[in-house]
TrEMBL record:
Protein name: Diaminopimelate decarboxylase
Key words, A-Z: Amino-acid biosynthesis, Decarboxylase, Lyase, Lysine biosynthesis, Pyridoxal phosphate
The protein's assembly and partners: Homodimer.
Catalytic activity: meso-2,6-diaminopimelate + H(+) = L-lysine + CO2
Pathway: Amino-acid biosynthesis; L-lysine biosynthesis via DAP pathway; L-lysine from DL-2,6-diaminopimelate: step 1/1
Record GO terms (molecular function): diaminopimelate decarboxylase activity; pyridoxal phosphate binding
Family affiliation: Belongs to the Orn/Lys/Arg decarboxylase class-II family. LysA subfamily.
Residues that bind substrate: 285, 321, 325, 354, 382
Names of the cofactor(s): pyridoxal 5'-phosphate
Catalytic EC class: lyase
Organism: Bosea lupini
Amino acid sequence: MHHFAYRDGALFAEDVDLREIADKVGTPVYVYSSATIERHYRLYEAAMASTAPGKPAHVFYAMKANSNLGVLKTLAALGAGADTVSEGEIRKALAAGFPASKIVFSGVGKAESELAFAVEAGIYQVNIETEGELDLLSKVAQRLGKRQEAVFRVNPDIGAGGHAKITTGSSANKFGVSFEEVHRLYARAANMAGVRIMGLAVHIGSQIREVDAFEAAYTKMRDLVLALRAEGHRVDRLDLGGGLGIPYEVPKDFDHGPGLIEAYAGMVAKLMQGLDAELGFEPGRLIVGNAGILLTKVLHLNPRPTKEFLVVDAAMNDLMRPAMYEAYHEIWPVAEPAEGAKTIAYDVVGPICESGDTFTAGRELSALKPGDLIAFMTAGAYGASMSSTYNQRPLVAEVLVKGDKFAVTRPRQTYEELIGTDRAPPWLP
Ligand code: LLP
């Protein structure tokens, strides 16, 4: 469910007409709905709270999905924690109002300076992925006179996800320490002055739409918790990662309700019953995915004997998912097509100079003309956060809507900002 819908023939974000945003802010522009973000966070949080009665269930929003300041502040105000993967994300989470005590630092390759920043900031937990990182973290924390709480991210050798590039849990992937290693590392860490190991973490992939793979991985994790405890280790926390998927391809009037979230929460509750561990969750896409759209304008039509190209002002640098993962995004024209209107099969492409800059091929849409606005739906997760300035295209603007209000939460990058920070080498005039 989301809050983008037609009203009197035009597409609205909550109570705001998207034509008004396009007029005032220009295109392309990402538009996010506060009500949708809030709804999904609340649904998810309530479902996870039911997984371990009597124990806190920590929700750390995976901010890599969407790190717009307005989105972050919305979630921080709801009491969410943040899952971060770089010093930049930690800094931004702090700036958005997430308390350090609710920040988790994950990631395969944390630099010494990043670990030092995290420890000094006093974050809740570091998710350790290699033995080298364990040693480095302990050294850094000791130097700072601290003992950092941490967990081991374990690779359960169960991969899943909507695309090979976003599967993380298989042993062939680069993520986490192995099930065999973790016993030895736990024992080693017990003698380290700079870290206190609190438990385990796991994350198997992204855009996973059924609970089976999670269940298989989490069963292994539960058994590992019990085995480590039997060896005399303290295992108080179990961070279960993110990865729950969302529907990208749906009829306009379809209400998903909480189905998948509840099935997932039910499975977790059953598996973890009696384990007496604090659970953590790291959802990204599920919270923000269908809370955002990319609004773009048709620039040109390019009819060919065999097909028709629709050239829009957004490109793969603004929304990389179709080019990178063959991802599907629905396209809704901002002017509501008349009932039964004839459609044309368009190849929707951006202005970038490579054929990969194709959003979709042969998509049936109502007839469009230059100047018309269309929206790429379900672009709130891994849209703006993965954008670049390829082809020297400025980063697009981002807008947050709340009811009948909207605010530019990131202005379009100026050409001065885009090219003005380069420096010529001294040997060239
Ligand atoms: N925790 C960890 C350790 C992760 O690596 C990720 C995502 C998450 C949580 C959040 O996963 P989510 O709930 O959003 O599925 N750019 C890709 C998705 C990459 C996901 C990377 N890791 C896409 O556009 O589909």
